[in-house]
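Worked example (supplementary).
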Amino acid sequence: MTKSEVLKELAEELDLTQAETEQLYDSFVNGLTTLLSKNKGFTLPGFGSFHAEIRPEHKSYNPHYEQMMKIPPKKVVHFNQSRVLKDEMNGE
Amino acid sequence: MSDKVTYGDIVDALSQKTGFSKNKSEAFTKALIAKVKQELQENGKASITNFGRFKVKEVAERQGQNPQTGEPITIPAHKRVTFTPYKALRETVNAKYAHLESELIEGEEEESSEGTELAAEKSHDSDQTVTPAPPKKREKANNNMVVMIAAVLVVAIIAIASAWFLMSPGEQGTAASQIQTRSDNVQPAQAPVETKEAKEVQNKQLASASEPEPQQSSKTQNTAEQASDNDNSELQVYTVKENEWYWVISKKVYGKAQFWPLIFQENFDANENPDTLEEYIELAVPVLEGTAENLTKADYQRLFEAGMMVSKAYHNAGEEGKAFEYARYARNWEMAAKD
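After joint prediction of all chains, the assembly is encoded as:
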């Protein structure tokens, strides 16, 4: 399902125009991205929680150079499914 | 661990940003989540544009144990939802780390520098040649260069230190000027080498060419003077090391810890909490017009503005005590600017 299809269905459901729905959609995604880049986690009820963590600098083998390499620190986004979502997915 | 934001906060922010009512914003959020769930049920995968992709993964049955009693149990096969962030999200979240690159380590030897240029060069070379041999040679050559630079800098430190100790305390003024002329004499000799290795040296110490500075900062009072004299550009770049805070950096760069609001003002806005500083990011460091001991009015004006901003940032972060304290500092600086 593409973004435009989702927008169309949501617009019908919420009784909004597609442009308005898109504005909401983009602001929502932007907001979540900003939160994560500020190291703030959040929970979407009934769905799951997101948080960002720093993966520290470490050493790792690079098969291309056939050598150990120093990998710089990086931020990684994690998702944890909620119990509700888990139960729904498993048909309970 | 990172702090959490509640669902209510997200909905409030969304309604504020878009101008829709809170009810509408929440209805939208709920509808979107429901949509994603429905898709996961139907297709086993769903995506949110510019955010990430959700996928249902089958987890096989496995043996586990009860963490409380240690009793073995069988965990039945089940499904779980996994999340993969899209590039847009990955890049935004990692914006502060974009300048870092992985680099080769030779044997047990560990390179202390974060030479981004070096790493970039190496990967470029090996893209062309595929074999890892040429990069090694280049690295050795670079190591020699580093040793040479280190030698030159050590000589410079000795020269400056001896000059300093030979002078009697009464002649401090002339001593300072002589040290400067000396270090200026040393500078041109270093310059050609340093342009090549500039980035490496920058990352090791400071953007300025004054490597001896940090060692001397405790002894001499004119370090900041030297720093600003040796540096021609408006800004220096400083890479934050582990467990460093604004005042530690300020002490290193200016020789005085209380000037840290300048660094904060240059890099962040009032929405950032001044008590959080992430490691490994690069900070722009503004250069003082005068010296740490003898600030110009423009410097005081800048300090006043920076102090007010820090106060505002603390206010936004809910630290009223600190906000009040920095507002007071800022007013002192403002008085100094007017005198």
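Two points are worth noting when inspecting this output. Residues 217-339 of chain B form one domain. Chain B touches chain A through 69 residues (CB under 8 Å).
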